[in-house]
């Protein structure tokens, strides 16, 4: 691959998938809501860190994708953290408009899986073992 | 692969990686904090949905992993949502103890990447384009 503009110290900490990507969890700064999951390669992370505009790798289109360039639904980046084992990023953003391309506010809205037996979960003793 | 106990209607909506996994974003129910990113195969998702105990696929160990069985740091599942394109789950949990195996509360705590020019991000007009 061509040399990346990503800080070599950061690049050395990434544990990438076989196709060179790290998962990016995108969380809204103000509400704490999880907006979406996206993917970053080294260039996308470098662009995100240097421009403050969330930039991802589109697996379906096979190209860099600066969120909002087409939709206007821009993400202004507040912070980026790398997890303990280097395979996930937490990107905190201010979101303009809906985050999801379907028009919902987050990509998870209204998409709960019904199979969970909530009664069982609620019957657990909560925060204590 | 052997037949899975996962609801076929749910299984049909999953868009798995080449190694059969879906990313699971784990969020604390009470605080909204993103605790960790983990991975689920069909069996892990089925177990999570039917038992209310968060269960993942460990990529490093190559086995199912019910969170807390060794550490005691159990996750009681409140809800599970599948995102718009079927490649990510949002698992909301009540977390017992720290979520991270390193002992930090989340896997992202204290791990911000310093390269972001926060002044630039703060200079953006916030929620409006």
From TrEMBL, chains A, B:
CC cofactor: Zn(2+); Mg(2+)
Catalytic activity line of the entry: 1-(5-phospho-beta-D-ribosyl)-5'-AMP + H2O = 1-(5-phospho-beta-D-ribosyl)-5-[(5-phospho-beta-D-ribosylamino)methylideneamino]imidazole-4-carboxamide
Functional description taken from the UniProt entry: Catalyzes the hydrolysis of the adenine ring of phosphoribosyl-AMP.
Subunit text: Homodimer.
Molecular function terms from GO: phosphoribosyl-AMP cyclohydrolase activity
EC number(s) on file: 3.5.4.19
Top-level taxon of the source organism: Bacteria
Cofactor binding comment, as recorded: Binds 1 zinc ion per subunit. Binds 1 Mg(2+) ion per subunit.
Protein name: Phosphoribosyl-AMP cyclohydrolase
Originating species: Pseudokineococcus basanitobsidens
Shown part of the complete sequence: 26 to 154 of 154
Family stated for the protein in its record: Belongs to the PRA-CH family.
Magnesium found in the keyword field: yes
Gene name per UniProt: hisI
């Amino acid at each position: 691959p061509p040399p990346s503009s990503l800080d070599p110290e950061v690049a050395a900490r990434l544990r990438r998938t076989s196709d060179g990507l790290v998962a990016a969890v995108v969380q809204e700064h103000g509400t704490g809501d999880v907006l979406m999951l996206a993917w970053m390669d080294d260039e996308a992370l470098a662009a995100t860190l240097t421009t403050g505009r969330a930039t991802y790798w589109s697996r379906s289109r096979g190209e860099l994708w600066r969120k909002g360039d087409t939709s206007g639904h821009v993400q202004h980046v507040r912070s980026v953290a790398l997890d303990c084992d280097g395979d996930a990023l937490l990107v905190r953003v201010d979101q303009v408009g809906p985050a999801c391309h379907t028009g919902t506010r987050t990509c998870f809205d209204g998409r709960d899986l019904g199979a969970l037996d909530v009664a069982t979960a609620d019957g657990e003793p909560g925060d204590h073992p």
